[in-house]
Amino acid sequence: MGAAVTQLPPTKGGFSKIYKGRVYLGFATLHDQKEIELRAVEFGRNVERVAKDWDGFYKKCIDEVKENLSFMGTLNDNLSDTILHAALRRAEKGNKRNWELHFIMMYLADVLYFEFENFCKQHDLAEKDFTGMLKGLETMATRTDTGLWNLARRAERYGLTEIFEKNEPQQVLGLVAHAPNGATWLNSFHEFMDIYGHRIVAAHLDVMFPTWIEDPAPAIQTIKTYIGRVKEGWDIREERAKMLAEAKAETDKFAATLSEEDRDAFYKHIEIGKKIYMFQEDHGFYIDGASCAYLHDVAMVCGRRLQKYGLLQKADDVFFLTYHELDEILEGISQHKEAGIYHYTRLVHSVVPERKDSWQQVSLQPDDAPLTMGKIPEKTEDPILMKVFGMVDEMLNAGKIEEIQIMDKFEGYPGSPGVVEGIARVITTFEGFAKLEPGYILVCPYTATAWTPLFPKIKAVVTDTGGMLTHAAITARECKLPAVVGTWRATRAIKDGDLIRVDGNEGVVEILKKADA
Fold this sequence. Notes:
The chain has 517 residues and is of the alpha/beta class. The chain has helices at residues 2-6, 33-52, 54-72, 81-122, 127-130, 140-157, 161-166, 169-177, 182-196, 217-231, 236-255, 260-308, 323-335, 337-364, 383-387, 393-398, 471-479, 490-493, and strands at residues 11-19, 22-29, 409-411, 413-416, 419-426, 441-444, 460-463, 483-485, 499-503, 508-513. The strands form 2 sheets. Strands 3-10-9-5-6-7-8-4 form an 8-stranded mixed β-sheet, covered by helices on one side. It has a two-stranded antiparallel sheet with strand order 1-2.
């Protein structure tokens, strides 16, 4: 829908599937040159219109997203069967609309970023340098971090740090509740969660997993990590101010090398660049994170209703029904409760256990998910494929995407500057989050909102996929961590415990010593 609304010229959009923690994309490339030219004209008009008033365009879109989220948040166990059924349909429609808005915004945003990028490159400025001019901006991601930091400070102030340091995350809230000043801290924690806790704990875009509100362990673990840094005197506000000052100094230094005409153009371009940069993180909060989390909550309300009527043993078994099956069941029950329950009990009682068993069998199989599936395109033209997933023509032509030679030294994008050596932790799914201890280098297929709590622990990050506007690169820059993204072979070449060097300046990763050596 996003490609159709914006009239994106090279493709009609993409498809995505998730398998064993990896996201697989496919794009419907256009080949009719006349159609491409007609779409290009209309797309150009849309880009020009948005460039004139990005703030107004973005506000209109994100306000609609927030309105949809607000409605999904109203569903509760007190609704009648009929109203719940209608609300489920509206919630699903709202979630779909949020994703339409996601891609409408992203296609236009990425093209505007290309204009900023092209200006900089025409003036011999490398991407790793001009992305440094965008760091330190306030986004929903940085606000989340600041909120967690404030909770860590309050925990220290109220004498609660020992509870965090000596207990598992699942035990912390119960123990804090009985501690002096614990109730005051818990009020602050719940206020934080009301705003920032609407996100799935893991598995990018997968609504079957709990939210932070249901399972606050990721937030507690991050607060625990921050407590240690707070004791060392770390102030996230000072760090953010320092980054902003550095970005401004780098911006002004480069601008001083330009002619007056080019300088004016550059400042216009970088303002757009900043807004696009902020959008990349904010849409992840509102849509990738919150829309999936609220849809999870909606499904749980429906699940509890089916559990109440004896159709499900547990409320979260609802995730083993398709949306259309759930819609049909609730429709039948709302029309005639007794008949609906009688009719669908047999269907649900046979289908759900079978699907649960299949799901568990898949999770027990070895992690053999390939990096790529299907035919690799000869040319990359979709802006999201290029900037978010790092698939550009040079990489296709070089054969980097194909799972071929596994090397001890390989390249990717210089996602965030810095050079560091350390022990690798290879994590391919959220189940591995718990094994990541402080001071390791994270090696993974990609990162998304669910992975953010890991960043305060690590020394650097290396990913298989991703470009300069991917979550891993942006988050690493904000956390001042070296990052190399889009290597296409990191999780295959690097093993748990390998000593590696990550050069985020040049985009190079090297295995210095293998763990089995």
